[in-house]
Amino acid sequence: KNEVEQSPQNLTAQEGEFITINCSYSVGISALHWLQQHPGGGIVSLFMLSSGKKKHGRLIATINIQEKHSSLHITASHPRDSAVYICAVLAYSGGGADGLTFGKGTHLIIQP
Amino acid sequence: GAVVSQHPSRVICKSGTSVKIECRSLDFQATTMFWYRQFPKQSLMLMATSNEGSKATYEQGVEKDKFLINHASLTLSTLTVTSAHPEDSSFYICSARGVGQGSEQFFGPGTRLTVL
After folding, report:
1. Which residues of A touch B35 (CB under 8 A)?
2. Could you tell me which chain A residue has the CA closest to the CA of B105?
């Protein structure tokens, strides 16, 4: 069982819709990352969270440490938001000394 | 955010040859660099962690003699895939973490390796 579970795996929505991607993890963590991977493979770090909530433009990320759950929200979604969104955690153990453990990603398609 | 580059972005090689992938931190000193691998439709998986000036720490199941990692300076780490085989075809991506940046990692654009 993957230590990091994301849902949904695939999401298709219309432009303008409010998008929520969820991430649950089973280990104690020191930080959680939300990453964006484009079709060519390149990865952009969107957020790093250890508590609370962060906002950047139309993106909002929240984390509940007690419930071991994080969400990524996209407001007023746009076709350029189409990408794979990956949740990754920095665990206290496992995944190497400091390496991230990744979810399988959520493939988001925003249709015009 | 900080910038990490990788070279080459794409490489095709024959089975049995060795391939070197470079990862550079362009505007900060990376005390730690990480190498990840992603097979098609799979999660990214950590291969190894390298700290500048010391030997890399490899994850279970990753052959250290096959995947040679060198982190000789604070801005450069290299991954050499020795005697590459078709099953080594994958997307290799590095990330870097610098002093005073906490646990934040900055990712390179990745290298797509195809072994014929």
Report:
1. none
2. A45
**Closest-CA residue in chain A for B3?**
A44
Buried b (16+ CB within 10 A) or exposed e, B27-45: ebebbbbbbbbbeeeebbb
Residues in chain B: 116
Instruction: Confirm or reject contact between A43 and chain B (CB < 8 A).
Output: yes
> Measuring CA to CA, how many Å separate A82 from each of A16, A103, B71?
12, 18, 35
Query: Where are the strands (E) in B1-116, listed by range?
Result: 4-7, 10-13, 19-25, 30-38, 44-51, 57-58, 67-73, 76-81, 90-98, 106-107, 111-115
**pLDDT digit string (tens) for A19-54?**
999 999 998 888 899 999 988 778 888 998 989 999
What is the tens place of the pLDDT at every residue in A83-110? 999 999 987 654 444 678 899 999 999 9
Q: Which residue of B44, B99, B101 is the best one to mutate when testing the A interface, meaning the one whose CB has the most A CBs within 10 A?
A: B44
Between B42, B46, B107, which is nearest A43 by CB?
Answer: B107
Q: What angle do CA B109, B67, B108 make, to 5 degrees?
A: 10
Backbone torsions φ then ψ of A81, nearest 5 degrees: -80, -10
Q: Is the peptide bond before A79 cis (omega within 30 degrees of 0)?
A: no
A2 has a chain B CB within 8 A of its CB = yes
